[in-house]
Amino acid sequence: MIIPSLDILDNNIVRLYQGNYKKIKFYDNNLFFLIEQYRLNGAKLLHLVDLNGSRDPKKRQIKFIDKVVKNINIPVQIGGGIRNIEDIESLLLSGVKRVVIGSIAINNREEVKKWFIKYSEKLVLAVDVFINDKNIKEVKINGWREKTNVDMIDLISEYVEHGMKYLLCTDIKKDGTFNGPNISLYKEIVKKFNNLLIQASGGVSCLKDIEEIKSTGVNDVIVGRALLENRFNLSEAISCWQKGSFLV
To answer: Cα 110 to chain center, whole Å?
Structure first.
């Protein structure tokens, strides 16, 4: 499916360029009105990112996110600064459909494996990958600011063995650029992990990009900036996804 994405910083809708908090763009859309428009245009799931939490887990926008979840009519998956089982269970109790975890899956692997065993249907592993000139795919964490020297495939394989079902993969170099998605990356992941439910993220600029992502075999594509800046609307994107061909 097409999953609209909204990044929230200080209760505002924003976009970062490749995760850089110094390259930030604010949008003056009313958050609740925009979400309702997404619902009316066919959204079945909303992806929210708490950028305050991503930058500093102690500053998660807990009250605001809770307000959003309780006052909209779309299931939500949310990530940003999740660091313990209490964070996960609190969000699930508030009505969140799925919780996205990233940095903690590197920093506390044994604990996170237990979470996947317990909440396999409720957790999404977010893998933010930086691909260098030698095609080494390194996972980055903490708002993409910290290197890990962890290989993408190795990390995914480790959690698949412990019940992981949902994977969200973002090519950091593509995110927020309008330069098109990394098609070869998603083909590689689908071929290697054909039992995973995979969400592609980063680089979508036009309906043709959606057509190309669909061809990789991923289950979903997350679209943020392209919708905010009216490159196309959600109804067009959903139609493209369903038909497997882009609209002229």
So the answer is: 23
CATH 3.20.20.70 applies to domain 2-243: yes
Q: What is the mean pLDDT of residues 119-125?
A: 97
- Phi and psi, residue 193, nearest 5°: -130, 70
pLDDT, one tens digit per residue, over 30-50 is 999 999 999 999 999 999 999
User: In this structure, what token pair is assigned to residue 138?
Assistant: 């390194």
Tokens 């807990």 belong to residue: 62
Strand runs labelled E in 157-240: 166-171, 197-201, 220-223
Which residue in 184, 180, 201, 202 sits closest to 246, CA to CA? 180
Q: Where are the domains of the chain?
A: 2-243
- Rounded Cα distance, 90 and 85, in Å: 8
The token duo for 9 is: 């910083």
Q: What is the pLDDT of residue 173?
A: 87
Known catalytic residues are 7, 128
Q: Please report the pLDDT score of residue 159 as a whole number.
A: 97
Q: Which DSSP helix (H) or strand (E) runs through 65?
A: helix 62-70
Q: Show Cβ contacts of residue 24 under 8 Å, excluding neighbours closer than 6 positions.
A: 9, 14, 15, 16, 17
Is the per-residue pLDDT at 23 higher than 90?
A: no
Q: Scanning the structure block, which residue is given the tokens 């692997």?
A: 109
Model pTM? 0.93
* Mode of pairing for the β-strands spanning 146-151 and 166-171: unpaired
Give kind and range of the element (H or E) at residue 15: strand 12-17
pLDDT-derived band of residue 117, with 50, 70 and 90 as boundaries? Answer: very high
pLDDT of residue 68: 95
Q: Which residues are CB-contacts of 89 (< 8 A; sequence separation ≥ 6)?
A: none
